[in-house]
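Hi support team,

I'm opening this ticket because the web form for multi-chain structure prediction keeps timing out on my end. I have pasted the exact lines I submitted so you can reproduce it. The total is 947 residues across three entries, so I didn't expect it to be a heavy job. Is there a limit I'm missing, or should I split the entries? Thanks in advance, R.K.
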Amino acid sequence: MTLLEAHNLTKHFPVRGGLFRKVEGAVRAVDSVSFTIEPGRTLGVVGESGCGKSTTAKLVLKLEEPTAGEIRFDGQSLQSLDAEGLRKYRKSVQAVFQDPYASLSPRMRVGSIIAEPLVTNESLPRGEAKKRVAHLLERVGLPERAADLFPHEFSGGQRQRIAIARALALSPRLVVLDEPVSALDVSIRAQILNLLVDLQRDLGLAYLFIAHDLAAVAHMSHAIAVMYLGKIVEYGPAKTVAADPKHPYTQALFAAALPAHPDETREEIILAGEVPSPINPPAGCRFHPRCPHVMPRCSVEVPPLDMALGREVACHLYDGKGQ
Amino acid sequence: MTDAPLLELDKLSTHFVTARGTRVVKAVDEVSLSLRAGETLGVVGESGSGKTTLALSIMRLLPTAARIVGGGLRFAGEDLLAKSPSEMRHIRGKRIAMILQDPMASLNPLFTVGDQVAEPVRVHEHTGRRSARDRARSLLKAVKIPAPEQRLREYPHQMSGGMRQRIVGAIAMACEPRVLIADEPTTSLDVTIQAQYLKLLRDLQREHGLALIFITHNLGIVARMCDSVAVMYAGRVIEAGPVRTIFNAPVHPYTQALIESIPRLGGGPSRLTAIDGQPPDLASLPAGCSFQPRCPRALDRCREEAPGITTVAPGHTARCWLAAK
Amino acid sequence: MSVSTAAPSRAVGLPLASRLAAFRTEGFPTFPILILLVLVFTAVFAEFIAPHNPEVGSLSQRFKPPAWIAGGSSTYLLGTDHIGRDVLSRLIFGARVSMIVGFTAVIFAGVLGTALGILSGYFGGWVDQVIMRITDTWLALPALTFAIFLAAIVGPSEWNIVIILGAVYWTRYARVIRGEVLSIKERDFVRLAIVAGCSKMTIMRRHVLPNVLNSAIVLATLMLGVVIVTEAALSFLGVGVPPPKPAWGLMLADGKKGLMAGYWWLTVFPGVCIVLMVLSANLLGDWLRVKLDPQLRQL
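Hello R.K., no limit was hit. The queue was backed up. Here is the completed structure from your submission:
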């Protein structure tokens, strides 16, 4: 059974301007996006800045409310949750963010940081909470005495481990990972990615893995969604998408990804121009002004996200090539 | 004469010395490198490996607490360490230029792009306002900025990150330098913009026979851009050589692990080779080889004695006892 | 002073300019802390230190000069005032009044302002609008005039002064704290607290408050000087601490009549006390500001 399902998820942020702060337009951060996350699996979301991937994460975490569309968790719509339902949802969905320096409260000891979700949601006796913290620390590969220290006494990689331990405290079923390794040193990244893979295997966690680093996403994910300007342009099994990207944007993105070896040569696709503003996205296909395969209809007609060649792709090139 | 290196570092050491001289931080320790015209050298390392201090040492732009304490630094046959500050000013920006990571911090928000691109030309070549302006326009064209005439009158904040970094590139290229040092030039850019920028740098290099030094933490950039690579760890170059040799047959365990730790496209969820532990604190390095506490193949000797430079093959050197055998 | 020995060990490895800056700011404020400690000590043990009753004088001993001047006596070290009360004893008990009024008013203003600042910053929206518009209006009124106006309404008493000063000065806290909260609430650890299921109250108490406390403490130290001067001014103007209670401002007011007659000790000593106290509080505040919160340096 599907763990989380987003259906036509949309988030617009009003843009105010002028003397009286009138609403003059909207940043269409996420525009009618649908995806599913299966239990114990990873959905990777890739895209460049402004593509809406972080807003999607916030919507899933209920840090923002959608303008339209809905998210269903365990078959139940998040909009219809009562206080008790929301509490249960919060216990099931946790997060790890990019900057391990900003995500740990600087004035709390590591022990209380990790215990906070426990203390907030379950009335545990002190000793029990302490035991759980020690166990969590061990789980992420940190010594037990770390609990008595403050975050500033740890390096970036260790802090990210602390953040992961905290996210695990409530035994969640889904963890949203928003660029969890981008701020870390190269030799530390692999440590953290490995830890995440181990935890998924041992605890059956589902991940929503958000990153701009394509190789890391491809490495971690079972399914990949590629976003451009608030829309998913390609969505399918990670192997299929990574091995043979179909949408011209995905192709360019994968071609732009840096090689792991100097002999690894890819077709060079250099996109012209830059990502347009999400306040006034281009008509038709949002990618058409930069697309190397642009056709006349692309500037008029929005391509639907349709099944083609084993994945969903939103591009007129594949019209009628379904299944 | 084409075989003579354009830039040559011979056991260059830069140390940070504390006020009382009680603590010495060896940010760059006996680094030897050489670079020919038209060549690209990648300097790879994690934060705190000394790669940025190395770049600043070459530019002789070190903070006051840092000092070049030994070794040689030669550029086009001249000894840069013997230059006076005013002579250095003529070399910096004109013959050796630099691009930094954060384009917003590199540009002055109060001046137009045109003024800033024209500035090095006016300073170094004493050209008039008008001809400097013309140069600025052609420079913007060279870094492929659309509508250069209009962009000249704009301010940095009106531009995107990628555009700003191009402006920084135009400023660096203004006096046709022979060496360009790029310190993490694309770290703040998006993937497709990074691809644009890397291509631009390669084009500029081809057109001008530029020697390029890429300072980066990203082995992918090295794989794509560089002819040779120097891997830095705790202030030292622990392995250096032609890029293919290093990727195909790395000798140093750190280089090996670094290469294996990059996730590959199409891998699927699996474990990566990780390097245990944390990079060391430069102020209190372990005894012997500084990588020894994290090294899976450390020998007793590694804990006692720091390895010297071993030549593995012509052009390929490593600092490791395993290579010395 | 220990200023020269305290700094360098911390400042190693820095370029000269920043070392100088560190030298200036890291110097432990021995002098202000010493003065404040002496004043607190005097205030607490006034009964035991003061040689005379501060509120009772004998008319036969009026206008005695300080002991070291011809006509002075060692019984009244700093002389006596117009009704023969011992100036030294009045100064000692005056320290108590200044301390009580100063500290309680600062704490009152601090608690009120910090609470409103956090609410305003964290909730935003109309809560923020209402609190900030009130703050703006408050700040637009000249503090002293406003305080006199309030004092005239509620009448003079030591505790009324505390309430008035608190009511006048809470706005400064609210402003600064709100600004801090605006940036703190965008930080990831606050987001993660929401994700962890913490209530708004919990987040404000556990995550926001500890992170604005530094600013609040720095502000409190700086406000101490302002509040004490205002208290003195109100007392001087006769709407502050009512006589015969010995308050420094009141002593100044009483003493000013004697200034022309050459009874300088009646004004100079309380004046010096006020200056020392305010100066110490400000120096300590400046040091704390740099020490605790670099972001507040431009305040």
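A quick check on our side: Chain A has a mean pLDDT of 89. Let us know if the file doesn't open in your viewer.
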